Structure formats: C-alpha cells, structure tokens
Amino acid sequence: MIKEKQNIALELDIEKIREDFPILSKKVNGKPLIYFDNGATAQKPKQVIDAIDNYYTNQNANIHRGVHTLSQETTVAYENARTIIQKHLNAEYAYEIVFTSGTTESINLIASSFGKKFITKGDEIIVSAMEHHSNILPWQQICENTGAILKVIPINQEGELIFDLYKNLFSDKTKIVAITHISNTLGTINPIEEIISFAHSKNVPVLIDGAQAVSHTNIDVQKLDCDFYVFSGHKLFGPTGVGVLYGKEKWLNQLPPYKVGGGTIKTVSFDKTEYADLPLKFEAGTPHIEGGIGLAAAIDYINSIGLDNIANYEHHLLEYTTKALNKIEGLKIIGQAKNKASVISFIVEGLHPFDVGTLLDQMGIAVRTGHHCTQPLMQFYNIQGTIRVSLAFYNTEKEIDLFIEALIKAIKMLK
C-alpha cells in the first residue's frame, strides 16, 4: 500500500499542481479552503485565467466577418480552440464540434432540432433513472409537444443500470437514447459502449451527457461511436458559459438550426434564407469567444498532466475517502456501483444534509448538499437529498483527513 501511494505521488506532483490554482490558497471562515464540490464546477488554473486575460488585453474583437487584424487574429484563435477540442475528443472533423453555452444548451439543441425533424406522436425516447434534470426536461418537453413517450432505464440499489431491462425498452418506435456517462450524484460510470452498441443494433442514435466524465477520463467519440456527446467547459477546469456539442456529421447535417440569426446564414432575403454549413448553422450570434479560447487552454492544461494519471490518482482518492466514510457510525453511502468516478454521495442517519453542509462550511470545507438536480433519483432511494463529495486531482489525502475530522465533529454537534 505504501509503495502504491509513492507511485501515485511520483506520477503527479500535487503540491506543484495546487500552485496553478490561485483559489486553493483562499481561506473560508478563517480556515484553509477545502474544495470538494468539483462536480458542480471545477476551479480554474492560472493557464486558463491568463488565456482569458490575454484575450481581453490583446485580442478582443468579433470573429468570422471582420477584415481588420484583430478580428482575423481572434477568429484564428477561436477556430484553433475548436480544433484543440476536436483532437481532444478524437472527432473526425472540426466542424463536428459546435460551441454552446454548456451541457444544458447542448441537450436542448439536440432535443429541439432532433425532435422537430424525427419525433412524432407515439414515438419513444429512452433516458435513465439517474439522469440530471438537464437530460430529462428537454425530452419531456418534446414528448409533451409531440405526443411521444419517455421511457426510463431502471437502476438497482447499487446505482447501476439494469442492462437487460434497458434492452427490453426498445421497440420499432424508439427514436433516440439519451444517457449520462457518469452520474453526477452517484459517481456511477455507465457502460456506454455497450449501451451505444445495442442501440445501434436497433438503428437508434445515442446522445451521451459527458458533463461529469470529461474531467475524469479520456473521451474518444469515434471509438465510442456515439452520435452526440455533450459537456460544459466549467466542469473541465475552463470558463463558465461555454460548452460543446459533438455530433456526427451525418446527423448535424440533417438537423434544422436550433436558434437563428447572425452567423448562421449564407444568404438572406425576405423570400428565402439559406443557412451556413456546419458548425456555423448552430452558432447564432456573437459566441462566448473568450470561453472557447479558455476551454482550449483548460484542455491543454489537463493533457499536460495526463488524463490517465488524473484518473489513477482520483481513483486512489475515491478509495481513500470511501474507506474513511465507511468507518463513521450511522453514515450510509448512496450508490455503491462497482465502476465509479470520484463522486461520493452519503446521508447520516437522523441528520438533514443541509445542516451537515452548513457546519462543514464553517470549517472551511465546501461540499454540495441537496438533490443535485436528480430528484427522480432521490425518489428512488426515498431520501430528501445527500451530502456529496466530488474530488479532483488537486485534492489531497490531508484534505480528506481534515474533512473526516470535521464531519465527525459536525455529526456530534447535531446529534
């Protein structure tokens, strides 16, 4: 065990990495910040902050249509960001990468455009019981508007999808599957390769919500063979307000624009409008330029560390934290999947998660409490909510030890 810890430490110089994140030196209520809410948003390294600062200091201009130098330079930087994201996801073409405001808009875009084109009364859409509201509500809305039917893949008590029941949901009316890669509440890593493969055997496309996955694991969209993959920049150590929709060219070409306006057209007359080629037909208006550039900087940063190294270290933190939590009397971890990312939800018998989270904050520790935008999942477990610890590669064993001490103290204060 000691040798294993040393190997992990050699792979990642955590203290050096932590120096890249200015906010980690902040104090909260007089205590050093311990940030365990990475599932909600991740902190930003200096490299991302500097990229955004450089944009506003040296590059600020609108893109694609200007002939002046600043506009041309900014257009190159923005399109280079798209190429960096394409290569990071191993998409076949850069124009399969569409910039959005985040995971929520990406899902809404596909639900709306795919729904208009392909979904009618009696058709079926498959989601899972562990979805974030952002991957439920857009599909519910399409069902309400068209008369389609939403079907839900059940889970077991461990928080794993029941694959046989997933297969049984398909019919000749099934139009699309939309499913999370990693549960934001349970940390469950879903078998998306098998999910995609089975759906494709039925000629059904698949959208993967990768909001929680992109910061923990390598994503190869061609290997996965997913039809759509979506994520947010702010969970990948990049800026807020920017996200990505990857879509296979064959699908994006068939879908109508989600929003229309400047930037989405080739020609406009009062008689007819001809829309632009990919990806511009989905990118109406002035985009979040500095967001795209900052997201590319974030991707370069995590790739300099290595996602395999990150995954190995975070798995170690997951095991370390889980072992410590399991020793606390009256504490129950919600979600015990065999394949998990570094996300742990738990409850403490007789205590409200909000009260525990508030006391932890007084001790400088940031955790998330509540239903985590997964109310149907809370209903499945018959609980009000959980306390969620979501770990990143800049977290440490020492922080976990301090968290456990603080948690035990909070429990004693509340009981």
Summarize, please.
The chain is α/β, with parallel strands linked by helices and 415 residues long.
Comma- or semicolon-separated keywords:
415 residues, alpha/beta, seven-stranded mixed beta sheet, four-stranded antiparallel beta sheet, 17 strands, disordered N terminus
Q: Could you characterize what this model shows?
A:
By secondary structure, this protein is an alpha/beta fold. The protein is 42% helix and 16% strand. The strands form five sheets. Strands 4-10-9-8-7-5-6 form a seven-stranded mixed beta sheet, sandwiched between helices. Strands 13-14-17-16 form a four-stranded antiparallel beta sheet, covered by helices on one side. Strands 1-2 form a two-stranded antiparallel ribbon. Helix 12 packs parallel to helix 15 and helix 13 crosses helix 15. The N terminus is likely disordered.
Write the layout of secondary structure elements.
Elements: H1 2-11, H2 14-19, E1 27-28, E2 31-32, E3 34-35, H3 46-59, H4 69-89, E4 97-100, H5 103-118, E5 124-128, H6 137-146, E6 149-153, H7 163-168, E7 174-180, H8 192-201, E8 206-209, H9 221-224, E9 228-232, E10 243-247, H10 249-254, E11 265-268, E12 273-275, H11 289-305, H12 307-325, E13 331-334, E14 343-348, H13 353-362, E15 365-366, E16 368-370, H14 375-381, E17 386-390, H15 397-414
Parallel strand pairs: 3-15, 5-6, 5-7, 7-8, 8-9
Antiparallel strand pairs: 1-2, 4-10, 9-10, 11-12, 13-14, 14-17, 16-17
Helix pairs in contact: 1-12, 3-11, 4-11, 5-6, 12-15, 13-15
